[in-house]
TrEMBL record:
Pathway: Siderophore biosynthesis
Keywords: FAD, Flavoprotein, Monooxygenase, NADP, Oxidoreductase
Subunit structure: Homotetramer.
Catalytic activity, EC: 1.14.13.196
Cofactors demanded by this protein: FAD
Domain of life: Eukaryota
Source organism of the structure: Plenodomus tracheiphilus IPT5
Name the UniProt record assigns to this protein: L-ornithine N(5)-monooxygenase
Family under the similarity heading: Belongs to the lysine N(6)-hydroxylase/L-ornithine N(5)-oxygenase family.
Amino acid sequence: MAEIVDADDIPHNLENGLQQPSVVANHLSIPYSQNPHSATPQRSITRDAKGRAILQFHISPASKMSPHAELTSTSSENPAPAVQRAFDGFLTENINENHLPSVENRSHLRYTPEEELHDLICVGFGPASLAIGVALHDALDGTDPSLLDVPGLQTRPPKVAFLEKQSQFAWHAGMLLPGAKMQITFMKDMATMRNPRSEFTFLNYLHQKDRLVEFANLNTFLPARVEYEDYMKWCASWFKDVVSYDQEVVQVMPEKSANGEIATFTVVSRNNRTGRTESRRTKHVVIASGGRPNIPKPFPSNHPKVIHSSKFSYMSKQILPDYQAPYKVAVVGNGQSAAEIFDFLHANYPNSQTRMLIKGGSLRPSDDSPFVNEIFNPSRVDSTFNRDPKLRSTTLLEDKGTNYGVVRLGLLEHIYETLYMQRIRYGSSPEAEATQWPHRIMPYRRVIDVADSPVIKNGIRLTIQDQSPLYFSDVPGGREQRDVMDVDAVFVATGYFRDLHETLLKDARHLMPGGDLADAKWTVQRDYKIRFAEKRVADDAGVWLQGCCETTHGLSDTLLSILASRGGEMVRSIFEQPTKWDSADVLGGFEERN
């Protein structure tokens, strides 16, 4: 077994895949194949004159070369170890250290031309896909013992691409509000729970940014949300060679091989910069496209003054540009995002009137106590998936109070204190609350109609069903009421839909078990791989779903809590079978249309 050295001993740069580092010490080799019937390719590390690491593939003369890799065998005439040509198409001859960039963070994945058949294409490059990229890096790096023996990574680095519709990496950019904190410990980052030795831990990020000591002085496990997004951007920057931004995937189509099996998939995307359509072929697809904003009826989906919470931080500045103006604003929702928006408006628009409309009787605290937090343990996914479906639905409903429609206790207490100060200033009577309080939480309210306001220019009129008299009436026989509210803007914090995969895979529905039945939905196995009809898809091909499997895998499916562990699971599942490559498949499959 090779001795593993500290990550800081290995540089992380190296342009265009010409030299690919791995954390293996003293020129020792790690076996790259366990096939007893063939020569054993090996990977090892050597260093150049400046100590930069070079990932090498050693192969004996008897072994068979794959059609896509150029290898030079070790022999008496050629004693140097064989080095795989850079698989982005550039040759390494006549390249010296002066051509290499300065040391910077770079992953072990390298760019693959669009026309080549890929091993893996990830639809979306948010936290879920990032965790897969990090796990792949650690697998190639040799620092994660759990991923050293993945069969599909034993002969060559994988050909991977991430397609992201945004123009840069961003995580909940619309809710990066001043003072907002993370709701989970930083230890549940992209790597720590799977591989604490990874270079992608939050602590290593702090070390690289020269803030480790100062962060320790904060005495907290909960970093600011803006810092955690910067951490994820830092992680994402390692993968710039293999991420294509401004690529909105619109279709994933199966392709038959000569024997009739589906052996590859074509991923069709629209370049949002040029408007052109591009297609790439791959053996494996991961759909990790995140959620799309849920703007419920009766709210219009495209009204300029009806803004989903996912766009709050930048859209609020556009539609409420004057912080001193007496705006009238409604916030719809009763969870963490709605509470943060309500608190932000109170703090930053002192002359505004803000109404928070909630469907229940009060804001409720999230439960993040130690026993309850075990819901988000990686091991809990197994027990959740293996439960009887009816029992699983019941327990998911019981557990929703940890994540849905709840607010962290510290924020709840802060909001209550600010409302209490209004009691001191304006009085505590119902009349004072209704007519003088600038900021109110209004329980048991439901918006039933939305129209243009006749009294506020470019404003909105909300018709509200008020059920509070049924609960708070001082006399028997309270009845529902209807009120109208005219506002300058409405911010809806009403969650997300997570069903884009159904649209992307519409041309693969005939591969569903039982055929394309009306209203049928895609289902997944424990490893997140889609269930296709038996013997219709090759063993070394498939589609995996991320972030849309809550009903089978539990509440952690859409959260950050298990990303590190799940990223490793995904790498093992996707590359468990060595990919079968035909020479005809090495090139082709890329086209561009106006």
